[in-house]
Amino acid sequence: MSRSSEAAALKRKRPDSSTQGLVDAELVVLNVVKSKKNQGVWVADVKKEANIAPALVDKCLTSLVKKNLIKKVPSIQNKAKKYYMAVEYEPSEELTGGAWYSEGKLDKEFITVLRETCLKVIGMMKVATVEGIHDFLKKRKVVECCTSQQVGEILNSMVLDDSIIEVKSTGLGEYHSIPIGSVCYRIAVGVTSGPKTIGPMASIPCGACPRISVCTPDGIISPKTCVYFTKWLDIEF
User: What does the alpha-carbon distance between residue 49 and residue 43 come to, in Å, rounded to a whole number?
Assistant: First the structure.
């Protein structure tokens, strides 16, 4: 046997250093928790599958947490239940609720800020796609840790409550920079006069601009190059 083969064989025989020093009961409990991967496991199910004394399972769980081999994770579906997961996994969205939740609670403040910001951007662009809004937010760093998927989900919720409308690009006029047939969004008629948008939209300079009819996202006259709009955006945000 070559030296490289011997080294490989020796490496395979070496026990996992992270589990060295664990008693048999701890190994059993750890294996049960690891087997659930990113779904986590309820403490009652650990006791059932480990098939050892419940009090000993509790002791092992506490010990494994202290040794940083497993961790407690919140569950939005069963907030009263204790769930455990191996430290190498990140909780699934089914368990935590995804990006809309923080420490097991719905992040209402983040949702409100993102909704209001998306409405402002659509009002500025007149018509916008999910990607266009997300790129704008990312470049301006208006909302931190915001994904394109989150923007899409927020826009869908805004369509349902009639804040905005979903349309498809014709490739003409205001849609000239958006591929024909692409899904995009506009502010719904009458929304700007309602209580939902009177704060952020009341002072927008676009309403008094004499060149508004020829203003387009990528045109010579554009919100991106407008000094008045930039000043308004900086103040509002």
Answer: 10
Reduce the DSSP state of residue 179 to 3 states and report it: coil
Q: Show the domain range for 192.
A: 108-236
Cα–Cα distance, 164 to 160 (Å, whole number): 8
Q: Which residues, 6+ apart, have CB-to-CB distance to 207 below 8 Å? A: none
Q: Tell me the one-letter amino acid at 142.
A: V
In the structure, what pLDDT confidence band is assigned to residue 13 with cuts at 50, 70 and 90? very low
3-state secondary structure of 165: strand
Provide the domain count of the chain. 2
**Same domain (yes/no): 84, 142:** no
Q: Where residue 30 sits, what CATH number does that domain have?
A: 1.10.10.10
pLDDT tens-digit profile of 49-107?
Answer: 998 999 999 999 999 999 999 998 877 666 778 889 999 988 776 666 666 676 667 77
Residues 24, 226: Cα–Cα separation, whole Å: 69
Does the pLDDT of residue 12 top 70, yes or no?
no
Kindly state whether residues 84 and 133 are assigned to the same domain: no
3-state secondary structure of 210: coil
Distance CA 105, CA 180 (A): 40
> Do 81 and 143 fall into the same domain?
no
In a domain, 102, yes or no: no
The 10s digit of each residue's pLDDT in 120-161 is 999 989 999 999 999 988 888 766 667 888 899 899 989 988
